[in-house]
Amino acid sequence: MTVSPAASAVPDPTNGLPERLAKHTVRYADHRSVNREELTPMFRQYVDVKDQYPHAILLYRVGDFFECFFQDAIAVARELELVLTSKEGGKEVGRVPMSGIPHHALDRYSAQLVEKGYAIAICDQVEDASEAQGLVRREVTRVLTPGTVIEDGMLNARRNNFLAAVVIAGSHWGLAYADISTGEFLTAQSSELDQLTQELMRLQPSEVLLPTNAPDLGGLLRPGETSEHLPDCLPTQFCYTLRSQTPFTIGEAKPRLMQQFKVRSLEGLGCEHLPLSIRAAGGLLEYLEDTQKETQIPLQFLRTYTLTDYLILDHQSRRNLEITQTVRDGTFHGSLLWALDETVTAMGSRTLRRWLLQPLLDIKGIQARQDTIQELVENGALREDLQRLLRQIYDLERLAGRAGSGTANARDLVALADSFEKLPDLASLVATARSPYLKALQTVPPLLEQLGENLHAHLVDSPPLYLTEGNLIRPGVEPQLDTMRQQSEDDVQWLKDLEQQERERTGIPTLKVSYNKTFGYYISISRAKAEQAPKDYIRKQTLTNEERYITPELKEREARMLTAQEDQKRLEYEIFLGLRSQVGEQADLIRTVAKAVAAADVLSALAEIAVYRGYCRPEMAVGREVTIVEGRHPVVERSLPAGFFVPNSTELGQEASGAVPDLVILTGPNASGKSCYLRQVGLIQLMAQVGSFVPAQAATLGVCDRIFTRVGAVDDLATGQSTFMVEMNETANILNHATPRSLVLLDEIGRGTATFDGLSIAWAVAEHLASEIRARTIFATHYHELNELASILTNVANYQVTVKELPDQIIFLHQVRPGGADRSYGIEAGRLAGLPGSVIQRARQVMSQIEKHSRIAIGLRKGSQVENASREKNGKSPATQPTEQLDIFGA
Ligand SMILES: Nc1ncnc2c1ncn2[C@@H]1O[C@H](COP(=O)(O)OP(=O)(O)OP(=O)(O)O)[C@@H](O)[C@H]1O
């Protein structure tokens, strides 16, 4: 990072030092507090590097370890539960805190630190320690931050790892985001700050770059940390990196983008006229240059999108519909994605997640997906063969990314070649397919076929993990390598011959020619026979049972052999690098194919589900109709034994017929299935717009612009808002943004306050939605007084979830039927829960008094009588001619 040493004041040297170390001779817990002149040369080199990376944990290579010192040692020991020790920092300095990790465990430990929101600078030895004159030269070769990791072990295969950058100007904002492991790079600009929050919540980026004027640049705010530099609209749950403003200025960002994509104008990228988008994207690119050092990240062409391209789902709705995790405990198990993810590749799984979070608005796009699913539903053999082949295709997107960035190993290239080999099979399998997503697989780019053949021709089937140890390249492809290999076989034979020859010369049949790292080749004779060793043997080492010798002839041959081996390994490595860059050059093409493969995977998974779980193809309509026949909740159905889920139908929002309501008031006892029904309707609509088949017997669904859900009441502890305030904020958001094309699912509005306030608000909200906005709405409530609304507004209907009452129990039928519940079963539920009999009896008395005398009840009764009379007289629909506000509190 181009960050100057921290500008903050030099800290107290012992601040944060663990007691155990403080008691000993360790005095310095922070590298900035030490007098550099007094440090040993190695420590001086360390602090010089550390100064350039004040906000990252510096992992400093010393032999076989990556060591941390001073404050980093303390943090790393704490976070990774490693032993904190100390090392002599200089005569006057004394010991400084130290902790370290073995170099071979770098990936594992780095992954843990990055996951905890730390940035890591890896400072490696850049010259051979044995050849160094004085101190070994070291350099930071890579900076790892949560949003910039590409290492396989640090990424979740089934989800994207996004790095985002935001630029805010007043209420306008620009957002750019990239997944550098797959190369996706997108940008958007808009004008409502709330939408920025919603976009970030959808993306769940691992790291967000924020240009600021903060003096302490490069700082990383870990999730949950707050800062005066963090604007209010940005949720604290993400990891933020504070950057300088300069790369985010239009003057720097624009040329950087043009250079990256080798274009003369940004017109082709679609963001020419979106300055905030350009600034965000340019700032993100600069950060990549800064952190990736020599590693080139092959990004795809920047794509500009607008928020209105997709069905809008705000964060609350996404959460309430439990799309990627459950509300209750935030687990994947129990979410919609869990229920639908039958994909067989990691690329498919990531694509399904993205599709579920961005349902489509375009009917043609939806139908293209539906057509593909239908073909795969109708042709079971095709579906099975397709999935069998897809299973054999590796993560092309990320493998291409690693090849392009020069971090792929030989196994990665073999995995790519194996995958390319399957593409022609895939193409011939779908040769006669008719649907769009299968047709996309019918042609295999010849370049990829050749590339796969070339990789297979060169690389052995199971290459080693390390690239510089040889054994990567097959025999017979590179004459020079074959000559070298022949030479080393001759050498091995020469050693065998030597052993035989020396056994005969000395008369010792147990004499052996062996090798170890310290002495190289030597002749070994047991101690008992040592006096038989010839005079020309030079003794090198004496062990308890063995004497070891060398001869000038053996050493001379050894020197030649070792050089030849090194040359051979180097040549293999060079051939490998050539292959890797050939793959890297095709990264874009590979990713295009990867996209097609991923989509086919998602659609065959959805087809498989449709067949086995009895889903139907919904008819997508241009109007506002929501007609679902015998719908089911896709997740609850899966968690119940087969046949236990009770299907329910839904009819909302038909244009012409007055018989179909826009708004349904849904009543029913606790735990009867109201929330489940509400979510079921939302999920069916969402799945339909993703292009999936839906859990129903039949469905006709108009395309929705937004789905809003307000389900249950949960305190938002993160922002310190009360249950009621959260509920009111969410309700306000719905009333301000819903349109006649929206689907609104409300559960228990007005519960978190006094009953009268709650009922009044619930009434007013329902009335506004039905008569002003006319959004398709299901309004689940315990206030059965709201049933009166249906007698006032023609586009409102009452439904209830039915129960069967037995003398000592209620049986939940889970059936949604027309009509309103005339009472709630709260007291009944209390009785079943074991409240004392006297309390239950008293509650019943109180309730009957309230029902008789409550001014709300009287007001409602009176109001509806008056309203009915006036409606009959005028013959007008109150939905088209809003009534005056009903005085539910009586005169
Ligand atoms: N259609 C159905 N078929 C079978 N079981 C169902 C159905 N709907 C709901 N259930 C079961 O009933 C349980 C309670 O449902 P839900 O939470 O939707 O009730 P509710 O009416 O919203 O309750 P409350 O008013 O207390 O919030 C669910 O966990 C589910 O197991």
Automatic annotation (TrEMBL):
Record keyword DNA-binding present: yes
Positions of ATP binding: 668-675
Alphabetized SUPFAM superfamilies for the sequence: DNA repair protein MutS, domain I, DNA repair protein MutS, domain II, DNA repair protein MutS, domain III, P-loop containing nucleoside triphosphate hydrolases
Signal sequence interval, chain numbering: none
InterPro entries named among the record's database cross-references: DNA_mismatch_repair_MutS, DNA_mismatch_repair_MutS-lik_N, DNA_mismatch_repair_MutS/MSH, DNA_mismatch_repair_MutS_C, DNA_mismatch_repair_MutS_clamp, DNA_mismatch_repair_MutS_core, DNA_mismatch_repair_MutS_N, DNA_mismatch_repair_MutS_sf
CDD domains (UniProt xref): ABC_MutS1 (cd03284)
Domain of life: Bacteria
Record field: transmembrane: none
Record PANTHER family: DNA MISMATCH REPAIR PROTEIN MSH1, MITOCHONDRIAL (PTHR11361:SF34), DNA MISMATCH REPAIR PROTEIN MUTS FAMILY MEMBER (PTHR11361)
The protein's role, per its UniProt record: This protein is involved in the repair of mismatches in DNA. It is possible that it carries out the mismatch recognition step. This protein has a weak ATPase activity.
Family: Belongs to the DNA mismatch repair MutS family.
Name listed for the protein in its UniProt record: DNA mismatch repair protein MutS
Species this chain originates from: Trichocoleus desertorum GB2-A4
